[in-house]
Amino acid sequence: MSIPEYAGATRYRLRFSLQEFELQLGDTLIGRSAECHITLFDPLISRKHACIHVFTDRAVLEDLGSRNGCRVNGNPLRGRHTLVAGDRIRVGKHEFVFDEFAQAVSTSRERATGSLVFCAGCDNPYPSEMGTCPNCGSPHALDEETRSSVMDEKGKQVWAIDLLFEVLQKAIDSKRADDAERVMRQIMSALESHLKNGSRLDGARLSPLVTAAIELSALQDDGFWVRWSADFHGRAGLKLPPQLAAAHERWESDDPTTMQQ
């Protein structure tokens, strides 16, 4: 589909945490499989869980016979549902908000993983989508280009992930579970993108991930992040660190819902 064909037509998107997914004409698959357009690691999500059929005048949500189903505005999805702006779609533990708008298409694409800025007040790095510094609450920030030396794109991505780990650890240390959850999901999105693009991952650089996953799971009393971290190490061909293996074994024994489809 070329850009002129979509210009001026109603456009649809899903909002999820700090991210937005623009829905193109045709089918958008949601599920655990890497083949899906929106891939979510969640033991409660089937490999191909749901599909949003996008037409020029409407978008329709369909459950694909998933094990745990979908919910729309808190109600179980029965058959197909024509979406309207503001609809809340629940898939596994994840909730999306459906939105629609009409405007000319910009030639630039939004960055799925967002960007980082530095707080002008306390120099704390945080995702720009938060709007205010999670450490001191200041709305004043400096962008990363004014604070960093010139790097290639790969270097910037690694640097951004390292900064996200710093933000995450501060949120965990302060017991701010919601802030930590939001930042961890950005880290998950960035790392999954690295893996999907075939980038080589260094186990030593993932040490902060192991620590954060264990601490955040304990803070939330939910082993989701430990299970995802262990699964990610496996898919990246990396050996599980002893502390992660031990935490994974404990959470697996406590939660039988982790069985994969």
Task: Describe this protein with a few key phrases.
261 residues; alpha+beta; six-stranded antiparallel sheet; five-stranded mixed sheet; disordered C terminus
Account of the 3D structure:
By secondary structure, the protein is an alpha+beta fold. Helices cover 32% and strands 23% of the residues. The chain contains 6 helices and 14 strands. The strands form 3 sheets. Strands 2-1-11-10-7-8 form a 6-stranded antiparallel β-sheet, with no helix packed on it. It has a 5-stranded mixed β-sheet with strand order 4-3-5-6-9, with no helix packed on it. Strand 1 (10-16) and strand 2 (19-23) form a beta hairpin. Helix 2 (153-173) packs antiparallel against helix 3, helix 3 (177-196) runs antiparallel to helix 4 (207-220) and helix 4 packs antiparallel against helix 5. The two termini are 34 Å apart. Residues 1-8, 104-114, 144-157 and 255-261 have low confidence and may be disordered.
Helix-strand string: HEEEEEEEEEEEEEEHHHHH
Low-confidence sequence ranges: 1-8, 104-114, 144-157, 255-261
> What is the oligomer described by this structure?
single chain
How many strands appear in the DSSP assignment? Answer: 14
Strand order of the largest sheet: 2-1-11-10-7-8
Structural class: alpha+beta
**Proportion of residues in extended strands:** 15-25%
- Please tell me the overall pLDDT: 76
Rg over C-alpha atoms, rounded to the nearest angstrom:
19 Å
Largest sheet, strands/sense/barrel: 6 strands, antiparallel
State the separation between the terminal residues, measured CA to CA.
Answer: 34 Å
Based on Cα principal axes, name the global outline: globular
Put simply, the count of helices is 6
> Helicity, in percent?
25-40%
